[in-house]
Structure to design on (177 residues):
């Protein structure tokens, strides 16, 4: 661990237990009698956070290696079962399949896969009033909008263009028979 000389003895013991013991963090906190307020105080210090992050990386790396080794062992056992060398029952075969399945469906590391670009590059023109339109199209839309605003409101007695559309889209009357 880095910063070993900048941590207290209690923090070092706690971090070593996290790294070496196969237990959850809650169990280790309980076993070492670390109070919640003490954990909060520890988390405020960047040195402790860095050391904890390093321990967590080590634990993840060790878990990945152990899973790879278990995957190899499971494949070897299944191959021996197929060849007839091992005749142990269903439980061992199921355990081997579970290990292989877990290894192949484990979450992949973030940041290693190359991502495809989310969209095409924007056009190389000066930015217009709306990012989705080119400046010429935006100017055209603005002039059309101003022309519509300059026209007086249509007379309610005048025939409307919307009436034929409503009649064409309405359903025919139901037959009461």
């Amino acid at each position: 661990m880095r910063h070993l000389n900048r941590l207290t003895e209690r923090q070092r013991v706690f971090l070593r237990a996290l790294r070496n013991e196969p237990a959850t963090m809650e169990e280790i906190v309980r076993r070492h009698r670390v109070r919640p307020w003490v954990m909060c105080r520890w988390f405020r210090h960047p040195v402790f956070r860095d050391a904890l992050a390093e321990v967590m990386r080590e634990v993840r790396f060790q878990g990945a290696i152990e899973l790879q080794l278990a995957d190899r062992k499971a494949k070897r056992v299944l191959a021996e079962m197929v060849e007839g060398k091992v005749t142990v029952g269903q439980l061992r075969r199921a355990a081997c399949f579970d290990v292989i399945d877990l290894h192949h469906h484990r979450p992949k590391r973030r940041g290693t896969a190359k991502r495809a670009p989310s969209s095409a590059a924007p056009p190389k023109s000066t930015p217009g009033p709306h990012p989705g339109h080119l400046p010429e199209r935006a100017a055209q839309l603005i002039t059309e909008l101003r022309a519509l605003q300059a026209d007086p409101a249509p007379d309610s007695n005048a025939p409307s263009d919307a009436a034929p559309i409503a009649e064409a889209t309405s359903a025919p009357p139901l037959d009461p028979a």
